[in-house]
Amino acid sequence: MEASQLRFKTLNQIHFPNEKLSSPCVEFHFFTCLPPELKIKVWELSLPYRRRLFTLRLNHEPKNEAGLTRGYKVSIEQLPRTIPQSSVCVESRQVTRRLFRLPLQVNTDSDRPVTIWINPDSDHLFLRRFDLEITTFAHFILDLKNSDVQGKGALHIAFDSLCRTSVPSLKTLSVDLANKLPQETIAALREWVLGMQSIWFIHLLSSESRLGSGPISGTGNLTIKGLNRSIPVFPHAVEFDLFEEDIRPYQPSLKSHTVFYNPTSAVKAWEAMENELGIRSDTWPQPARQISHILAVTARQGYLRPASAEVRCAKTMDDYLQLEQDRTRDFFDRGAGTFFPQWRETEDQENLLSAAGFWLFPYGTFDTLDERLTGKACQDLSGQRPGLGLFEF
Questions:
Q1: How crowded is residue 67: how many other Cβ atoms within 10 Å of its Cβ?
Q2: Cis? peptide before 103, omega within 30° of 0
Q3: Residue 167 vs residues 23, 173, 298, 320: alpha-carbon distances, Å
C-alpha cells in the first residue's frame, strides 16, 4: 500500500493509521430496531471529531446591475471530505446538521459553487490573503452569523501575519470602522467578536528555515546552534488534531529563531479594531477568546523544489522530505555542517522531527523580539513548549 512505499515514516502516518486497511467491515443489522434515543446517540458518535482548517480567499465583488451580489466572492483551496451521515437518512441528516450547522458557499466565482457545512465550535477559517475593506469583511462575517441557527457564526478565524497585504488591511479596519459602517452593523460585529473562541495569526517561514541556510534562517547567521528540521511543514490539508504540547519525543531546539517582519503587528492591528468596537480586556465574557501565534514552514515555495510541487498528501510530503534530506546531506558534506558534526540527526530523529502541521504559541510570545535589522528580528524561544497541530492527509 501507499504507506509501505514511503521513504519517511513521519509522525503524521504514525498518529493517523490507515483504519480502512486495519479494521474489518462490521454491519449491525438490528440498528433500525433500536429506540430513537439510542439511534441518535450512535449517529452522534459516528460523526467526524477532528478539527478542520479551511484556507479561503475572500475577494470584494462589485454589485451587478440588479444589486443582488453579496459584496464578496469566496474560493477555497481544498474541499473537505464528504460527511456520509449527512445523506444516509432523515435522522442522520438532522443529527449532522446540529453539529455541522453553518453553511458556507465557496468557489462562488465559478459555474459550480459548492456549499460546505462548518462546525463553528471546531473548524477554523484561514483568510490567507487579507486585503479587504471593513465593509466587505463585515458583510462576510455577518452573513455567516445570520446563517447560523445559533446566531454565532465563525468562532475560529485565522490571518496570515506575514502576508504583505494582510497587516495594512487589518490596520485599516479600526480606522474605517466608524466611517464606513452603520451603527447596527457595528453592534452586530461587536457581538460577533465577543462570541469568538480563538484568533490565529499564522507566520509561515520559508523552507530555508528548516535547513539552516538562506537569508531568514537562524543558522545562517549563527543565531541558532543546529538545524531546524523540527519546525512543522504547513501543507495543503484540511483535517488536523491539536495537542497542547509538541508530542514528539525529540523536542526541538527553539533558541533564537529568526523571522522576517514582526509577528505582533497583525495582532496589534486586530486589537485596535476591538478597541474601536468598545471592547476592553475587562469586558470579555468568560472564557475570553484566545489569540495565538502559529509558526510553521510553508511547503509551497522556496528553493527546495518548484513552487507548483505543493505538499498535498503523504506521497508529496515524502517527496518534499527526500529533497530536504538531500540538501541536508549536502550541507554536512560540503557546507558549514562539516564544522558541526553534532548537528547530524539520527534516523529516528529524521522521521519524527518531520511533521506536517504547525506550532501554536500563546499570546505574547513575540513581545520581546530583538529587532537587529530592518524588517528582520530574532526571538529567543528557548524554554517554550508550543502546541502541535498535526494534519491528516
A1: 6
A2: no
A3: 47, 10, 19, 30
Q: What is 368-393 written as a DSSP string?
A: T-EEEETTEEEE--TT---EEEEE--
Query: Nine-digit cell at 280?
Result: 476592553
How far from the centroid of its chain's Cα atoms is residue 62's Cα?
29
* Residue 291 DSSP SS3: strand
Tens place of pLDDT for every residue, the chain, 393 residues?
444 588 888 899 889 876 554 455 566 656 676 777 777 777 777 778 889 999 999 988 876 655 556 788 899 988 898 888 887 888 878 888 888 999 999 987 777 889 999 999 999 999 988 888 899 999 999 999 999 999 999 999 999 987 778 888 898 999 899 889 999 999 999 999 999 999 999 988 877 777 765 444 443 444 444 567 788 999 989 999 999 999 888 766 665 566 667 888 899 999 999 999 988 777 677 778 899 999 988 877 555 555 556 788 888 888 888 888 887 777 777 766 677 777 777 878 877 888 999 999 999 988 888 766 555 667 777 778 899 999 998
127, 129, 132, 138 from 180: Cα distances, Å: 22, 22, 13, 10
Domain boundaries, the chain: 2-391
Strands of 370-373's sheet, edge to edge?
Answer: 257-260, 376-379, 370-373
| 3 state DSSP class of 36 | helix
Cell digits for 277? 468596537
Q: What is the DSSP string of 170-216?
A: HHHHHHHHHHHS-HHHHHHHHHHHHH--EEEEEEEEPTHHHHT-STT
Short-list 222, 204, 373, CA closest to 302: 204
Quote the CA–CA distance of 41 and 317 in Å, as a whole number.
Answer: 37
Task: Specify the 3-state DSSP secondary structure of 308.
Answer: coil
Cα distance between residue 10 and residue 250, in whole Å: 13
Residue (of 129, 49, 53) closest to 85 by Cα position: 49
Cell of 204: 509561515
Cβ–Cβ under 8 Å, residues 54 and 125: yes
